[in-house]
Automatic annotation (TrEMBL):
Protein name: Helicase POLQ-like
Stretches with biased composition (Basic and acidic residues): 93-103
One GO biological process term: DNA repair
Domain Helicase C-terminal: 526-722
PANTHER family, sorted: DNA POLYMERASE THETA, PUTATIVE (AFU_ORTHOLOGUE AFUA_1G05260)-RELATED, HELICASE POLQ-LIKE
Organism name: Gambusia affinis (Western mosquitofish)
A single cellular component GO annotation: nucleus
Length: 1055
């Protein structure tokens, strides 16, 4: 057909959107007089879809009126005096006439090529020719779908015609066809195009306009990228390492990394690690780098990939409650933006088994013990395959408490399918907690063959053992974002550590600082000279061997600092002092009161949670420039410094291990701030040879701790294996143990007794404790008893299991409920009793303040008033009394006072205890109370404790007034901040979740924007979690039971 080219101009005739009838489309072409060119200037020649086809002749430019976005997307479209659908009919009519003429011509003059005589309908020859791909490149998805339907019809038509033999008789038959039938056929063909176009435009017209098109487009892009990433990851091979926009994740993740973390580009080693063939093919991997190398970021990317692409849950394990809460705050925003849940499992928080979510994935962030209980609950409920990733980070801290040669570190990652586990491998060598990690990993690996394990670690001496244990490959890199230079100081000389030197040390410089004779006596190690080289413009950490030494060093440094230090960020330090005082309810540590004005503080476990958080935040912002701290800081929260000074090569009385040394010096150098980091180890001449081995020797090896403490770990493991129905015989237990690190290292660790003998001995012990039974039928079968099930489900130490059961049964005989004292005594942790040395005068004074019923209860548990009175008077006590019960009652009185007073400072002063110990006691009691609650849930005879301990757990967890508890549930919100929020009108979780962070900053004193953002994000995540849990419960109630009996049809007359 010879149509002119039609030019399209888009203009808006009115800024105001018009109302529309959703059942009609108003697509009108506007005729412009005198603007046509060539023939047919005043008539419509052809349907246009955006660009005119090359077969159309010149036509005058027609102006179109459109909405702001596209021709069909909203209700505003094309305006003219006649319907475009009418024009479509006119075009098709023209095509029919042309086709009939062509057919008449073919009848008279048949072509030599039979195939050329195949009749083509008007839709296939011309109209569809105008609806080419190129004409639809810029149209919305709905119009593209319309175009594809038309092309499919055309292809089918051509295929059908092409399969026929074209002869002149075909034309004759066509000529004999009734004209009415032909008219119906043409009408039907026309309607197929017109109706489809009309239907598509009507669909667009009724599209809801309440949602922003920009938001919809962004959501579509993210969904598409996630889909592409999933397909790519399923078909990935070694030859195609590219997983998508951002390592298999949507580009929104990269934007969030930049916005929330300031990360624009990954380090080369991180990209290389994420692109490793074993990672892409989901094989196990252990990757080892120095401290501060960025290991955790790789794990977080893998977590996000598991959550978003593979739609599996993840578990992130951390050693301390404070670190768990910090990570919950840090990842809450990611969860809100990317639509997954972030759940806290620490202290008394966490549900076993976790809430089963149909539509969302969850990231569980847990302490080591909570993670083990979580994995047990998933195995018991047959839901372990829902878990896609487990990460254990920052556990190297725990190495400082581990004994001797069988300590090491190990962080693993289970890798093989749905579940990903990442942990710091050093933890495997950390005593009982290392044993718990080994049990957790072994269970996951044994029960889920589709589990991927990725282990993060510093350099280890026996990495081959870990590779064999996990069936993993190893990736090692010595990358550090900031260069680290290690030095040692002997007398007035500083030497650089150089393993290539014969003596391992190379002379660097002499100290240039003038000391007076009095100053030399107070500071013989020249700490003041070393720190004043960097502070206050740069930061410094001074690691000390004891907590008391931390406080002494901080005070000594301030004594000799110049007055100029007082003026550096003076206003911000004044604010910090106010916050410390408010956080202590008017009380303040005298050492901090003296040192903070100089920008100096100390950091150890003796601080309260409020003090520790304020000190860490002030140091991170640069308000404090120096911290005197113990080694625990090196493995805890990330607080780097320009210079790290090791006051002594000892922790307490034990000489440093290389792993501890590397953790401490690894804090030197702040990425993005410093160009270099320095560490200085202060030595005495007597320690020179041991220090040489410390700084130059290879890293220690990591060993299993299942055999530690006379096999306590393996005993607990075997009990849980039988209770979870993983093993029911000695042979099955042995088979499971083949997948442990202990089995790999049995030649080193099972010297006195073979592993098989150890298993038999442990089973005999469990039978003796009546935790398991042996049913002697045709084949012996091991089964767990009710007490054994309660022990492993409550995570109760088997050493105290029987004692706890007896105490609870005895408590039921005369349970005193007029106050909380009796319940508090029953949940006072047994493992803190050895650390308790009562002040007998304080004990007696507090005992006399008890009511008659409370004193009677004390006597019932074995602590009579007469005994306490005699001890307070300094008299000898001839009658035998259980000192464990006496000390436990003293700790119970401390907790009882805390529940009534809620002021840690006042209670610590009243009982002559350090505030840090009181805080530790409270945290341990709340966690143990939660364990006892789960313990009693498995024993029917202890049913009264279920309701009683539930509320007590909540009270002990927060130890504040009841109205503050909803706010304290938010990760990172402590008592002082909760009081601020409550007084400002934010009294509920919903209030805080819907707060504007900017308004919060203006309302609350000394609240920074970043803190407000994290607080609100955590509150939103917690609120979403609670709401989702309720919705899941509703859905579960309304779901048709799978085991519903068949329902017979009833008589309709009876209905």
């Amino acid at each position: 057909m010879s149509c002119g080219t039609l030019h399209v101009k888009i203009k808006r005739v009115c800024a105001r959107k018009r109302s529309r009838d959703v059942l009609k489309t108003r697509l009108f072409l506007v005729r412009k007089e005198g603007r046509g060119g060539g023939r047919g200037a005043g008539s419509t020649k052809c349907l246009l879809s955006g660009r005119s086809s090359s077969t159309m002749a010149e036509h005058g430019a027609a102006e179109y009126c459109s909405d702001s976005e596209d021709l069909f997307g909203e209700y505003d479209s094309i305006l003219e005096d006649t319907s475009i659908l009418a024009k479509l009919e006119e075009v098709e009519q023209h095509e029919r006439l042309r086709s009939e003429n062509r057919q008449s011509f073919r009848t008279v003059q048949p072509s030599a090529d039979p195939m050329s005589q195949s009749p083509k309908g008007p839709l296939t020859d011309s109209v569809l020719h105008e609806l080419e791909d190129k004409a639809f490149e810029d149209l919305p998805p709905s119009q593209l779908q319309f175009q594809e339907q038309i092309q499919d019809q055309a292809k089918k038509s051509k295929l059908q015609v092409g399969n026929k033999t074209s002869t002149p008789s075909h034309t004759e038959a066509a000529g004999e066809t009734n004209s009415e039938d032909g008219s119906r056929r043409h009408s039907k063909a026309r309607r197929s195009v017109a109706d489809l176009l009309k239907k598509t435009m009507l669909g667009n017209a009724v599209t809801p306009v309440g949602v922003s098109r920009t938001a919809l487009l962004k959501e579509a892009v993210v969904s598409e990228e996630i889909s592409v990433a999933m397909q790519a990851m399923e078909t990935i091979s070694a030859e195609t390492p590219d997983l998508g926009p951002f390592f298999g994740l949507p580009s929104k993740v990269k934007e969030l990394m930049h916005k929330l973390r300031g990360i624009q580009k990954l380090y080369d080693w991180q990209e290389a690690c994420l692109n490793l063939e074993c990672v892409q093919q989901r094989r196990n991997l252990i990757y080892s780098l120095p401290t501060s190398g960025g290991k955790t970021l790789v794990a977080e990317i893998l977590i996000l990939r598991e959550l978003l692409c593979r739609k599996k849950d993840c578990l992130f394990i951390l050693p301390y409650i404070s670190l768990v809460q910090e990570k919950v705050r840090g990842l809450a925003t990611f969860g809100l933006e990317l639509d997954f849940m972030v759940e806290e499992y620490a202290g008394s928080k966490g549900k076993f088994p976790p809430v089963k979510r149909r539509n969302k994935r969850s990231l569980y962030i847990a302490t080591i013990e909570k993670a083990h209980s979580l994995v047990n609950s998933l195995i018991e409920s047959s839901r372990l395959d829902h878990l896609g990733l487990l990460v254990v980070d920052e556990v190297q801290t725990l190495l400082s408490s581990v004994a001797a040669e069988v300590k090491g570190r190990n962080r693993r990652k289970l890798t093989a399918g749905f579940f990903l586990l990442v942990l710091q491998l050093h933890m495997l060598g950390d005593g009982s907690r290392g044993a718990v990690i080994e049990m957790t990993l072994a269970k996951v690996r044994y029960m889920s063959k589709a589990t991927q394990i990725i282990g993060m670690s510093a350099t280890l001496g026996n990495i081959k053992d870990l590779q064999m244990f996990l069936g993993a490959e190893n990736y090692t890199n010595d990358f550090r974002p900031v260069q680290l230079k290690e030095y040692v100081k002997l007398n007035d000389t500083i030497y650089e550590v150089d393993p290539k030197e014969e003596n391992c040390f190379r002379f660097s410089r002499m100290l240039n600082y003038k000391y007076s004779s009095s100053m030399q006596k107070i500071d013989p190690d020249h700490i003041i000279a070393l720190v004043t080289e960097v502070i206050p413009l740069h930061s410094c950490l001074v690691f000390c061997p004891t907590k008391k030494n931390c406080e002494n060093v901080a005070g000594m440094i301030c004594k000799y600092l110049k007055e100029d230090f007082l003026q550096h960020r003076e206003a911000e330090k004044a604010v910090l002092l106010q916050e410390l005082k408010a956080g202590g309810n008017g009380s303040m540590c005298p050492v901090l009161r003296r040192t903070v004005p100089y920008g100096v503080a100390y950091h150890h476990s003796g601080l309260t949670a409020e003090e520790r958080k304020l000190v860490e935040e002030a140091y991170s912002r640069g308000v404090l420039c120096l911290l005197a701290c113990t080694s625990t800081l090196a493995a805890g929260i990330n607080l780097p410094a320009r210079r790290v000074i090791l006051r002594s090569p000892y922790v307490g009385t034990d000489f440093l291990k290389r792993s501890q040394y590397k953790q401490m010096v690894g804090r030197a150098g702040r990425a993005g701030i410093d160009t270099i980091g320095e560490s200085i180890l202060i030595l005495q001449e007597k320690d020179r040879s041991m220090a040489k081995e410390l700084v130059c020797a290879p890293m220690e090896s990591c060993y299993s701790n299942l055999m530690q403490d006379d096999g306590k770990g393996i005993l607990s493991l075997i009990l849980s294996l039988i209770g979870l129905n993983i093993s029911s015989s000695l042979q099955q237990v042995e088979q499971f143990l083949r997948g442990t690190l202990l089995f790999v290292q049995q030649q080193q660790l099972c010297v006195e007794r073979s592993l098989w003998d150890t298993v038999q001995r442990c089973v005999a012990t469990l039978l003796e404790k009546e935790l398991i039974t042996n049913t002697a039928t045709h084949s012996p079968s091991l089964q767990v008893t009710r007490l054994g099930r309660a022990a492993y489900k409550g995570s109760v130490d088997l050493s105290y299991c029987s004692v706890l059961y007896k105490d609870l049964l005895k408590g039921l005989e005369g349970l005193q409920l007029s106050s909380h004292l009796h319940l508090v005594y029953l949940v006072t942790p047994y493992d803190l009793v050895p650390q308790c040395n009562p002040d007998w005068m304080v004990y007696f004074r507090q005992f006399t303040l008890l009511s008659a019923s409370e004193q009677k209860m004390s006597a019932a548990v074995g602590v009579p008033e007469s005994f306490v009175a005699r001890k307070a008077a300094g008299q000898t006590v001839k009658k035998s009394v259980d000192l464990v019960a006496v000390k436990r009652m003293y700790l119970a009185l401390v907790l009882f006072s805390l529940l009534k007073d809620t002021d840690v400072w006042a209670v610590a002063d009243r009982f002559q205890l350090s505030r840090g110990f009181v805080q530790t006691l409270l945290s341990s009691a709340s966690a143990f109370c939660c364990c006892v609650l789960h313990f009693t849930e498995e024993l029917e005879e202890l049913w009264p404790f279920k309701a009683l301990l539930l509320e007590l757990t909540r009270r002990l967890s927060y130890c504040v007034k009841a109205e503050l508890i909803p706010l304290m549930e938010v990760a990172g919100v402590l008592e002082f901040r909760a009081k601020q929020l409550y007084n400002a009108g934010y009294k509920t979780l919903s209030h805080l979740a819907n707060a504007d962070p900017a308004v919060l900053c203006g309302t609350l004193e000394h609240l920074y924007q970043k803190q407000a953002n994290l607080m609100v994000a955590s509150a939103k995540m917690l609120l979403n979690e609670k709401a989702a849990a309720l919705q899941e419960e509703v859905d579960e109630l309304l779901t048709l039971p799978a085991d519903l009996p068949p329902q017979q049809h009833q008589n309709p007359q009876l209905l």
